[in-house]
């Protein structure tokens, strides 16, 4: 079980959005590299990064900021937002990313995701962002007709390393993760699932270490960490304790 701190990049700064709205951005740190190092110093072992501008543009926009993050931390980093081609994937992996997250392209071109998994084993995750139970694309700006489980099952057996599942209706508003939908997805596929969107407090951390959530790879926390609603030391100690019991 991994708690992934999140760095969302807008105009080269660390921000958090409300409900995926680029106009509702709160800047938390103008120095993404310093933020990455701070999370490492707090004891986190992974980092989740999203190029928000890139998600809308369909190509990398905050590349310099991501490079600064990779230089600043020894932790493995996963990146989503604007990664749409095999060349994009290869470029980012060569720059030191642990894995890429494919979102829009997973809906538009599932065959590309399968090919990427073949070429870069263990390095490709799929981001499934849902609004009202349907998958959203293009930086959450467009809804598709695809259901979450329907999309996830397209990648069974393909070698996808993880599915990052975000409930857009909860993202950035601290109402708690949609545990019911997240666990339903985890039950429906063999691919490890990471919960995202709405992690609000230590209650969510306590929920993620319950036995029925052990099937998850972990959860992502953004605003709750930045605002101090989740204490890093307490959260990581809870997760370590749960791992100890499981062992």
Detailed description of the structure:
- The structure is a single chain.
- This protein is α/β, with parallel strands linked by helices.
- It is built from eleven helices and twelve strands.
- It has helices spanning 32-41, 52-57, 63-72, 86-94, 104-108, 110-119, 148-153, 179-188, 202-208, 223-226, 232-246; strands at residues 2-10, 13-18, 21-29, 47-51, 77-80, 99-102, 124-131, 134-137, 142-147, 163-167, 193-196, 218-221.
- The protein has an eight-stranded parallel barrel with strand order 1-4-5-6-7-10-11-12, surrounded by six helices.
- The longest helix is centred in the last third of the chain and has 15 residues, at 232-246.
């Amino acid at each position: 079980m991994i708690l992934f701190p999140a760095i969302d990049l807008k105009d080269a700064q660390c921000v958090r959005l409300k409900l995926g709205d680029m106009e509702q951005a709160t800047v938390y740190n103008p120095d993404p590299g310093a933020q990455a190092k701070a999370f490492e110093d707090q004891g986190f072992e992974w980092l989740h990064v999203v190029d928000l501008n890139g998600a809308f543009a369909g190509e990398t926009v905050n590349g310099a900021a991501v490079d600064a993050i990779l230089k600043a931390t020894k932790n493995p980093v996963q990146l989503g937002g604007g990664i749409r081609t095999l060349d994009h994937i290869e470029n980012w992996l060569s720059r030191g990313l642990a894995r890429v997250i494919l979102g829009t392209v997973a809906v538009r071109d599932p065959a590309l995701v399968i090919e990427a998994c073949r070429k870069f084993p263990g390095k490709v995750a799929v981001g499934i962002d849902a609004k009202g139970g349907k998958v959203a694309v293009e930086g959450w700006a467009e809804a598709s007709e695809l259901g979450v489980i329907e999309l996830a099952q397209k990648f069974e057996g393909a070698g996808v390393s993880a599915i990052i599942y975000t409930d857009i209706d909860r993202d950035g508003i601290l109402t708690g993760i949609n545990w019911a939908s997240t666990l339903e997805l985890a039950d429906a596929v063999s691919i490890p699932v990471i919960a995202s969107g709405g992690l609000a407090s230590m209650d969510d951390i306590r929920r993620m270490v319950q036995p029925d959530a052990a099937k998850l790879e972990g959860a992502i926390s953004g605003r709750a960490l930045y605002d101090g609603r989740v204490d890093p030391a307490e959260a990581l100690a809870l997760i370590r304790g749960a791992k100890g019991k499981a062992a």
